[in-house]
Write a structure and sequence with these properties.
- The structure is a single chain.
- With about 160 residues, the protein is an alpha+beta fold.
- The chain has two domains: about 5-55, no CATH class; about 65-110 and about 120-160, Alpha-Beta Plaits, CATH 3.30.70.
- It contains four helices and ten strands.
- The protein has helices at about 35-45, 45-50, 80-95, 135-145, and strands at about 5, 10-15, 20-25, 30, 65-70, 100, 110-115, 115-120, 125-135, 155-160.
- The protein has a four-stranded antiparallel sheet. A two-stranded antiparallel ribbon has the order 1-2. It has a two-stranded antiparallel sheet with strand order 3-4.
- The longest helix has 17 residues, at about 80-95.
């Protein structure tokens, strides 16, 4: 598999399916790990292309993390649901360029096991997800601690394997 290097954060990116898309500049295509990196590049490409590349030993490791949201469903009606969603959107917006994919709320799930299919969604049903980038598990956990709905659910933080 061919890889490209994001000119903003120096992460390896799959040019066939870059999370952040691509951008053409002076006849060269650049690939990005997140929309935030692409936006930063497009605002001032020269500042990210000029000067020496960072030394490999000084590059900060950046990883992707899945935030899996578990917990009770909000059933107070559409108005209360909209308030909960607004809190979530404000929190995700506050994470800035760390957000790779803000995710989506999820509907009722089914669980497949060797004994068949059940409709109960499991013992700790998944209600949503997001993907973020961070330099460590601790940094990702710090982000997740701000999740605005911890009073009704939990956030499972999982490092995505390369």
């Amino acid at each position: 598999m061919a890889t490209a290097i994001d000119p903003i954060c120096q992460m390896k990116v799959d040019p066939d399916s870059p999370f952040g898309g691509s951008s053409e500049y002076q006849g060269t295509t650049y690939y990005f790990c997140s929309p935030g990196c692409k936006t930063a590049f497009e605002q001032d490409p020269e500042s990210h292309l000029s000067g020496p590349a960072p030394e490999p030993s000084r590059q900060q490791k950046v990883s992707f993390f899945l935030f899996a949201y578990h917990g009770g469903r909000i059933s107070e009606g559409p108005e209360e649901g909209a308030k909960h969603m607004a809190k979530f959107e404000a929190w995700v917006g506050g994470l800035g360029d760390a957000v790779v994919n803000p995710g989506h709320p999820l509907g009722q799930s089914k669980t497949v096991s060797s004994s068949g299919v059940s409709d109960d969604g499991g013992s700790n049903h998944l209600v949503g997800f997001s993907i973020v980038k961070a330099d460590s598990m601790d940094a990702a956990l710090d982000m997740a601690k701000g999740y605005p709905h911890l009073e009704i659910g939990t956030v499972e933080v999982v490092e995505m394997m390369a």
